[in-house]
Amino acid sequence: MLMFERILHEYQVIGRRLPSEQEPTPKLFRMRIFAPNEIVAKSRYWYFLSKLHKAKRANGEIVSVNEIFEKNPTKVKNFGIWLRYDSRSGTHNMYKEYRETTRAAAVEACYQDMAARHRARFSSVQIIRVATVKSADVRRPYIQQLLQPRLKFPLPHRVQRPAKKAERALIIAQRPSTFY
């Protein structure tokens, strides 16, 4: 089995404004951020917090950063992702569906998809919400076609290979039969 490390991880970042005389116990703000490491997660946290609330890194602090792991990372699930991205012509809201094993993998597939279809860079895509979608509630036909109970993938062009290299012939009298 081929194992590789995911590029994106899901982090829970909790932060607040620095305590002051007017506000001795400031309100905590929690966000789930998808980033390659903790440093980028903290940076994205301050980016989003400055847009949502009147707070910035200079007068705030991060209370905790925790990585969130998937409960069932081996089960395939349907994910719905609400996002917003900046294109060359303006800002657009979008809903996309992906079939992956983890939330982080679905968001990673979303970033790849946005880069391929819309030429949107990582910095111009903002993930608003990620939710698991039940099979009955899937909207997109390219995901619905994968939800059939007895789904089969045909193998149309199978080439017979010899067991050993010594048994391989460079020139063969007839064309190979590749269908079954």
Instruction: Give the ordered list of helices and strands.
Output: EEHEEEHEH
- Strand order in the largest sheet: 2-1-3
Tally of strands: 6
Low-confidence stretches: none
Give the class from helix and strand content and strand pairing: alpha+beta
Q: What percentage of the residues does DSSP assign to strands (E)?
A: 25-35%
Shape annotation: elongated
Q: Gyration radius, to the nearest Å?
A: 24 Å
Cα separation of the termini: 28 Å
Main beta sheet strand tally, sense and closure: 3 strands, antiparallel
* Number of DSSP helical runs: 3
Overall pLDDT metric: 92
Residues in helices, as a percent range: 10-25%
Description:
The structure is a single chain. The chain is an alpha+beta fold and 180 residues long. Helices cover 19% and strands 31% of the residues. The chain contains three helices and six strands. The strands form two sheets. A three-stranded antiparallel β-sheet has the order 2-1-3. The chain has a three-stranded antiparallel β-sheet with strand order 5-4-6, with helices on one face.
